[in-house]
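Suppose you are handed only these lines of text.
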Amino acid sequence: MTSAPEPIYVTRPHLPPLADVVKLLEGVWDRRILTNGGPLHQQLETELAAYLGVEHLSLFANGTLALLVALKALRLQGEVITSPFSFIATSEALSWNGLEPVFADINPRSFGLDPRSIESRITPRTSAILAVHCYGFPCDVEVIQRLADDYNLRVIYDAAHAFAVDCHCGSLLQHGDLSILSFHATKVFNTFEGGAIISPDAKTKKRIDRLKNFGFVDEVSVAVNGINAKMSELHAAVGLAQLPGMAAAIAQRRAVAEAYCAISLACSTCNCRISARPHSPITPICPCLCKTTHRSAVMPCWSCCAATALWRGATSIPSSPSFSTTAAMPAPIRPATPRRYGRHARCCVCRSIPICP
Ligand SMILES: Cc1ncc(COP(=O)(O)O)c(C=O)c1O
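From them, the structure of the protein bound to pyridoxal-5'-phosphate can be written out as follows.
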């Protein structure tokens, strides 16, 4: 008899078998090479690049440092057009580089930057577009590239949520001048803390590898104003142990994402009309923008899909594949009478508005 797959809990990190990590750490203890591009770091860079279908990948201590270094590597100045609908690290990385974030509108259905809004924000001071593949949904990469070409801008993708997301031409991470990933504990592929930059060529990777290691070109010479953003051997060991389990973990999340998308497609109040195929999001959190019951304001909420289905009278949310957003889900939680909370409908799981944690 095959046992049912474990439910996915948004708040519970995905871990590899401990024995696999310990085995790799025994080698670290034997070698006493703990960081500075050790053998596990090199192995993870190679294996991860192959897994993701990219050629040039540099590991980082976290995704925020990867973003900081990516922006620095492109020698940007002035204003950078970016998304207001992202984790704070996206705009913080701009400010830390002395760049001015200029927010454009997003498309409420894909959560990506709306190219028309980007164009309306371009000024003579604009040097780049920092777009976000929010929740793993691909941005309109071709239109954004056309805009960048027309106005001579660089394009950086914050792909923190877009691990192993493919587009029509292969890995989504190949678009733009640089893409960054986060391997934070919240991500399906996590190294506890970690991140990466995907470069288009070996020369750019070399520059980025120098920047993340204080700007050293050899043991004694510093060529650029760098920083320490390297991933340690310990974190690389976790990453190597994670890789064999990734295909199954992602397949399970894709099935969950498809279940959510099916609900959102059937929902009359929901603004979100994203089909889960062919580019299923694989982050555990996938909100949709729902029209509230009282006004036409939109309410972003990661459990809206489930909440909306329940409010509309469903007695349960799809049980196959099993999915959970918290320990309390997916138990049927339809209130006897749908409750109204003033101006906004509240999330039926956490009762918060407008954005659940
Ligand atoms: C969109 C986005 N960008 C950047 C980051 C920063 O990544 P990290 O937490 O690895 O520093 C995150 C983290 O979740 C994120 O969601």
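What can we learn from it? The chain has two domains: 8-13+246-331, 35-231. DSSP finds ten helices and eleven strands in the chain.
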